[in-house]
Amino acid sequence: MKKEIVVSGIRSTGYLHLGNYFGAMRNYVKMQEDYDCYFFVADYHSLTTHPDPKDLKANVFRVAAENIACGLDPNKVTLYVQSDVPEVTELYLMLNMMAYKGELEKVPTFKEKARNQPDNVNAGLLTYPVLMAADILIHKAVKVPVGKDQEQHLEMARNFANRFTSRYGEVFPEPMPFNFGNQLIKVPSLDGAGKMSKSENVNATIFLADEDDVIRKKVMKAKTDQGPTEHNSEMPDYIQNLFLLMDLVCAQETVDQYKTAFNTCTIRYGDMKKQLAEDMVNFVRPIREKTIELHNNEALLQKILKEGAEKARVSARATIEEARKIIGINYY
Ligand code: TRP
Predict the structure, then answer these.
(1) How far is the CA of 8 from the centre of ligand 1 (A)?
(2) How many domains does the chain have?
(3) How remote is the CA of residue 229 from the centroid of ligand 1, in Å?
(4) What CATH number does the domain containing 208 carry?
(5) Atom 10 in ligand 1: which residue has the minimum CA distance?
(6) 303 shares a domain with 287
């Protein structure tokens, strides 16, 4: 049976952190077994903020290396760089004719960016959801694994696809959000407030590139208190968060042991944080080392990305031919 097609874009700015790993990466790695996956580094999208040309290559290669180090297997998924598949930009142009100024201006992510960078409210920023729709529709994806923050963009992709269909005929299936159910894990930040994030509270976020000692320091600074004074007390949320983090990286019996200690008021948060820090170090280290090894092997990364682009272009070309023809760009 033909596998369902999945597309997802990986931002090329910033470093991956544990929130990305448990929220997205781990699911990507699972999906590669059962779906026909196209995962790409979204370098065109990053141009909206005019990054320094010197930084682009290192960002793209690092993100690719990090994703492979987390378990994405280039032999199972098609891993490529967005700008290596020019058919995406052609479809972007076509879809721009289906996208209306009013609806684009209403998108919350656009409004927020426009507020944050009032001097650079460019058309690329406005049409970000159109480019994202092109990324998805170019492979006729039916499932897109995205977080809550991207669901509206995905809805717009469905709208553009449907408008295209009613104007010209069916080329694009409707892409639906991939639902991980209860596997969608929010990884709490170490300062007890919110979740790990690459823009906020970086000192309370564990990055996959963090050195052992950096991880230890961040974990040891996490907020605790004197400990409970009554058996089976309610757990303050910052302690609950530490337990959530333990669930992710520690052995079950270790977690149980500390839970019992909490319930019997014998818990020592210093020891608990040391344990959490060591288990996190052991979790992150192999990923960090693999990333560095790959990043240092530019020839290998180039080979992987070039092969990925070739595979992606086969699928992209077929879709574009179909779209051109149905639009009437079919002259010779
Ligand atoms: N906009 C997504 C993000 O910010 C990245 C992205 C670009 C994407 N194109 C995509 C995700 C296509 C899914 C499908 O995370």
Answers:
(1) 6
(2) 2
(3) 47
(4) 1.10.240.10
(5) 9
(6) no
Instruction: Pick from 5, 11, 67, 174 the residue to mutate for probing ligand 1's pocket: most ligand atoms within 8 Å of its CB.
Output: 11
pLDDT digits (tens, 9 = 90+) for 211-264: 999 999 999 999 999 999 999 999 999 999 999 999 999 999 999 999 999 999
Tell me, yes or no, whether 87 and 134 share the same domain. yes
Distance 318 CA to ligand 1 centre (A): 22
Domain coverage including residue 284 = 202-291
Q: What is the DSSP string of 139-186?
A: TT-SEE---GGGHHHHHHHHHHHHHHHHHH----PPPEEPP-GGG---
Same domain, 25 and 167: yes
Per-residue pLDDT of 102-116, as tens digits, reads 999 999 999 999 999
Longest CA–CA separation in the chain, Å: 83
Which of 107, 103, 97, 62 shows the shortest CA–CA distance to 81?
Answer: 62
pTM value > 0.85? yes
CATH number of 102's domain: 3.40.50.620
CA dihedral sign of residues 313, 5, 124, 301: negative
